[in-house]
Amino acid sequence: MLKETGQSTVEYALISAAFLALIIGLGLLWRSVASGEFEDHAVLSASHHIQSSAVGGCVDVLLY
Question: How many structural domains compose the chain?
Answer without folding.
Answer: 1
